[in-house]
Structure formats: C-alpha cells, structure tokens
Design a protein that fits this description.
Layout (H helix, E strand, L loop, with lengths): L8 H13 L2 H10 L1 H10 L7 H21 L8 H20 L4 H21 L5 H8 L3 H10 L1 H19 L1 H6 L5 H19 L3 H12 L4 H8 L3 H23 L4
Helix pairs in contact: 2-4, 3-4, 3-5, 4-5, 5-9, 6-7, 7-8, 8-14, 9-11, 9-14, 11-14, 12-14, 13-14
Length: 259
C-alpha cells in the first residue's frame, strides 16, 4: 500500500467511515451518491440499445458494477474512485452487450469489413483512404458505403468502446480488476492512453471532431447534433462512423505498439 499525496487526504477522509465499518448502509449511501456516474456512462451506449428495456438492463448492470467498485476501492492507492468505477462500469456493460449480441451479426460483419479495408488501404497509401477508394476496395458504390456507415452506428460505438476499455484494463490489470495494486508504470500507460486519444481526436476533420465532441462530451443525441450542425441525422451518423473508424484504427495500432 502506497502513501497518498496531500491532495488525497481530504478524499480519504470522505471514505474513512466506510473503510472502518464496511456496513451495507454506508456502502449503499456511496452507491446512491455515484448513481449519476452510471447514468452518464449508459448514455454513451444509448444508441446501441434497441429498447427502453435494454437501457434498463445497462443501468442495472452498471449499478452492480458500481457496488463492486465501492466494495473493492482503496483510496490509499492514490487513484480517484470515479476513475476506478468508470472502468469497471464500462467493462461490465460492454461484456453484457457482447454476450447478448445486441448488434446483428450481419452488421458486425460489415463493420469488420469496413475496418479491414480501411486498414489495408491506409497501409498501402500511407494516408487515410477516401470514400471512393474504400468503396472500390469493397466492390460497392460510394452510396452503398455511406448507407453502411449510417447503419453501423451501434457496432462502431461498441467496437470502439471495447478497444478503449481493453487498453485501460491492460494499463493496470491488478488494480482495475481487483483493487489490490497500483504501479507507476500503469499510471504512465494511462497517461499515454489519454495522450493517444487526444491525438486521435485532433487528427480528425473539423466536422468529425465536432460530432465526437457533441456526442461523447456533451452527450447530445444524433438528432440534436444534426440540429446544431444544420445537417441531416443520417449525415451525422455517417460522420460519426467515419470518425470512429479513424480513431479505432489509430488506437488499435497504438495497442499493438505501432505508434
């Protein structure tokens, strides 16, 4: 167990009652305090849910993960609870969605094909391929490609979240999975991840950056983004999918040590 810095003394004091008692009431009070964190994370996956029942399933799974996070969290490790809980909640929701296979297999297949042709053409040209080049590589029209990009929203969001969550867990597997350990190396890895994400976003086009910002940071729905940007909802979906393809390509290469 490491000695936390001064900035964590107040934070630890807030957790001291539960650390000493470990009683269920105090735990539940903490869970209620962080319920908004669960709702915020579920909002990131809302486009993957086909019904209100599935949203409820995500919330319930998130609450279970939050309870587990409260029980395993140790503030003396020098990590904020929000960071620790976020990774566990996101991981639990992703696992549930993967097991229940919310995204149709045909959509997953098309999503994989688009990713593969993008990576292949990027390697061949040394730059990001145009829609025309991707469409030609897939043997389809540009219009057909745009339709695929529009329809594959759920698969893209889930696929991207999987890449990011796996990288975050790889950065500190012992602490994130069990709450038992933390190392300077893992902190550096997490900082590198944040840096790579920032660079990936900066590498996007202006409209792509705006859509990513409004969708992930402002939590706007596609329809709301369309109104803000003065374009159709289907066009927003296409821009979002294109942005995620590029970001996933960069993050996957980073994960493989290519960057």
């Amino acid at each position: 167990m490491t000695t936390p810095g001064p900035e964590y003394e107040k934070y630890i004091k807030q957790w001291q009652p539960y650390l000493e008692s470990r009683d269920e009431k105090t735990r539940n009070d903490i869970v209620l305090e962080y319920m908004d964190l669960v709702k915020k994370i579920v909002m990131r996956f809302r486009s993957s849910a086909g019904s209100y029942a599935q949203v409820d399933d995500m919330i319930n799974q998130g609450i279970i993960a939050l309870i587990d996070a409260v029980e395993k969290y140790d503030p003396y490790m020098g990590n904020k609870f929000e960071t620790f809980a976020t990774v566990k909640i996101r991981g639990a929701i992703i696992d549930m969605m993967r097991k229940q296979d919310w995204v149709p297999r045909s959509q997953r297949s098309l999503s994989k094909e688009v990713d593969e042709i993008y990576s292949a053409l990027y390697a061949e040209y040394g730059r990001e391929p145009s829609k025309g080049e991707m469409a030609a590589g897939m043997g389809i029209s540009v219009e057909a490609l745009e339709k695929i990009l529009e329809q594959r929203q759920s698969a893209m969001v889930l696929s991207y979240e999987e890449v990011i969550n796996e990288k975050m867990q790889a950065a500190n597997p012992l602490y994130i999975n069990t709450g038992d350990s933390d190392t300077p190396e893992s902190v550096v890895m997490q900082q590198e991840l944040v840096s790579q994400l920032a660079e990936a976003i900066e590498s996007l086009g202006e409209k792509e950056r705006m859509v990513v910002s409004l969708y992930y940071y402002e939590n706007l729905k596609l329809k709301e983004i369309a109104q803000v940007m003065g374009i159709t909802e289907s066009r927003v979906s296409q821009i979002h999918s294109a942005a995620i393809i590029k970001m996933k390509h960069r993050m996957t290469n980073y994960e493989k040590g290519a960057l």
